Amino acid sequence: MAEAPLLSVRNLRTYFDEDGRVVKAVDDVSFEVGKGETVGVVGESGSGKSVTSLSIMRLVPMPPGRIASGEVIFDGQSLLTLSDRQMRSLRGKRIAMVFQDPMTSLNPFLKISTQLMEVTQLHLGHSKAEARAHAIEMLELVGIPDAARRMDQYPHEFSGGMRQRVMIAIALSCRPQLLIADEPTTALDVTIQAQILDLIRKLKRDTGTSVVLITHDLGVVAGMADRIIVMYAGHVFETAPTKELFARPGNPYTRGLLLSVPDVTDMTRGELYQIPGLPPDVSRLPPGCPFAARCDRAEAICHEVFPPLVQLSTQHHSLCHFAADVYQQPMQRTVAAADA
Amino acid sequence: MASTVAPVTADAEPIKGTSLWQDAWRRLFRNRLAVAGLVVVSVVIVASILGPPIIKATTGYTYDYIPRDVELIKAFPPFTAPDGSFSWTHPMGTDNAGRDVLARVLLGGRISLMVGLISTLVSLIIGITYGATAGYFGGSIDEAMMRIVDVLYALPYMMIVIVLLAMFGGQSPFSQLILLFVSLGAVSWLTMARIVRGQVLSLKQQEFILAARATGVSPFRIVARHLVPNTLGPVIVYATLTIPSVMLLEAFLSFLGVGVQAPLASWGSLSADGVANIAVFPWQILCPGVTMALTLFSLNFLGDGLRDALDPQMRKG
Q1: How far is A23 from chain B (nearest CA, A)?
Q2: Across the interface, do A195 and B208 touch by the CB < 8 Å criterion?
Q3: Contact B5 A199 (CB under 8 A)
Q4: B211 and A89 in contact by Cβ < 8 A?
Q5: What pLDDT score was predicted for residue B19?
Q6: Single pTM value for the model
Q7: Is A154–B20 a contact, with Cβ atoms under 8 angstroms apart?
Q8: What is the per-residue DSSP string for chain B?
């Protein structure tokens, strides 16, 4: 990337102090998002992907949580040192977020119009009339039919997919530079999922917004992301351009994830592969690699020494003692990345 | 992959939107007791407002008009003229000074209802502000604020109010009234604060609050716009039930003589006046007493109906 990245997260550590233990939800995470790029963040539940995005937005509840160290630089500005008021003027205006469950992300007691208009009235200083006109425009942009009339309805009168479209409309109202979508399609049917992803892709093309797409579904990122970050136990385990990650993963964990995706063309009806074991408790990690207990190529060193971040190619890094070996080995099955 | 956004298919016929409030309203109307309560309360309110001028126009009596004719300065039973025949002049009779009881009861209604409404309003404002603040900030601020509430709860409030009213009251009937509004309101805000705080605490966890914060809405606006309106259900119910309890408190205070002062009247002070003659002129206490009881029942039925109407909605949200 020739120009400076839009978002730069460096050595971010977000810990939670609970009952005397320290839960290291995000432990030394670094990544960058360029202008107009879509970065996919993939990981199992508990990998720290949501907490990372909440940390960027500084929405982590601060009594149990704290940002122990690290930097978050957005458009040249350090976000972690901003005051609450400055942060609030950023949220919704330059960085927007879409959440997982559209059923609960909208205030059930307010009309859609109120919730849509609130953003532009707040950040762009729209009058009521301007905000209303803009809101109708946004609803039409996201594909809600009869927008002018449906504006005055309540969230419970919309279906899940339409509510998510409304959430996206709210998020993009002020033309933010960065959109963080935290599992935007997880709660939706597969067909609606495809529509929503299409929508995000189209809006991104039209507005040039950068997108951070958080999901546990490899299929979703395959078609959407330019680059992918794989997270596990609060660490970044691998980061690579999409095609390269699918074709030549450099980390046993990524390999395991890819192998876990059932191949629809496979007619042998063998047993489905799954990574053995469960994600670890991030408040009680043993020394060494967090994945060592579940890794099928783990050796003595993996249980004792924390793995280094190995650079495999210009944009491909992997956290593993044996990254180079894994990288050399061809994938047993290729999971075809959908045409982007 | 399609590059155009597939629009959601339009609906065949227009849908009428219903808000959750309209649902609740419909539920309320199905509850006959609540509707009866609503009707009675409305009748009492309208009568209190329009009654006195009508009475003044027709019979010339106001709440403190004492007739000049010495013959009329005595207690007459309801619907009775001085000569014993039927008369419309005094549907509730007169008191010992010849004053029309109906006019006094209607004035009493004005005063008692005003006290109930305004004191409840005072307690609402204090309670909602206090409770929402404690609930939103949580943590040690919430702890401190709620411990203060606990301590205040333990104080023997009626004693304090009585002492306050006895010490500071008495300058004029109106200043006594203001004092009553404030002191009764100050007594009842505690439970309101607890209710609002509880609601805010549970609502705070909901994802739409996080979504609102993610769009940069300030804490004040979140509390005012997103949280407090969602607490209105229990608040309305509790307010509707606070009004009768405050009215009863006022009646008690007026009965003791520290509440509403003459020449103003409230149902409580009228009952106090009438209690002395209960054996001979029972209507003097029965009329204000029964009117007050009816109004209080009706408010309670209305409040219960509101609770039933608004509760399922709360669970849905």
Answers
A1: 20
A2: no
A3: yes
A4: no
A5: 67
A6: 0.76
A7: yes
A8: ---SPPPPPPPSSPPPP--HHHHHHHHHHH-HHHHHHHHHHHHHHHHHHHHHHHHHHHH---TT---SSGGGSS---TTB-TTSSB-SS-TT-B-TT--BHHHHHHHHHHHHHHHHHHHHHHHHHHHHHHHHHHHHH-HHHHHHHHHHHHHHHHS-HHHHHHHHHHHH--S-HHHHHHHHHHHHHHHHHHHHHHHHHHHHHHHHTSHHHHHHHHTT--HHHIIIIIIHHHHHHHHHHHHHHHHHHHHHHHHHHHHHTSSSPTTS--HHHHHHHHHTTTTT-THHHHHHHHHHHHHHHHHHHHHHHHHHHHHHHHHH-
Closest Cα of chain A to B207: distance in Å?
5
Average pLDDT over residues A308-328: 90
- Is the pLDDT reported for residue A340 higher than 50? no
Pick from B2, B210, B216: CB nearest A90: B216
pLDDT of residue A333: 59
Q: Is B38 in contact with B302 (CB distance < 8 Å)?
A: yes
Q: What is the ipTM of this complex?
A: 0.79
Residue A151 contacts B where some CB pair is shorter than 8 Å:
no
Torsion of CA B148, B154, B160, B162, to 10 degrees: 130
Site from A53, A86, A105 to mutate, B interface, most B CB atoms within 10 angstroms:
A105
**Per-residue pLDDT for A278 more than 60?**
yes
Chain B contact set for A157 (CB, 8 A): 15, 17
> In B, which residues are within 8 Å of A106 by CB distance?
208, 211
A229/B contact by beta carbon, under 8 A: no
B137-193 tens-digit pLDDT: 888 899 999 999 999 888 887 787 788 777 876 677 777 788 888 888 887 889 889
A171: which chain B residues are within 8 Å (Cβ-Cβ)? 215
A63:B139 CB<8 A: yes
Residue A104 pLDDT greater than 90, yes or no: no
Contact A99 B7 (CB under 8 A): no
Q: Does the pLDDT of residue A198 top 70, yes or no?
A: yes
Question: What's the pLDDT band for A13 if we cut at 50, 70, 90?
Answer: very high
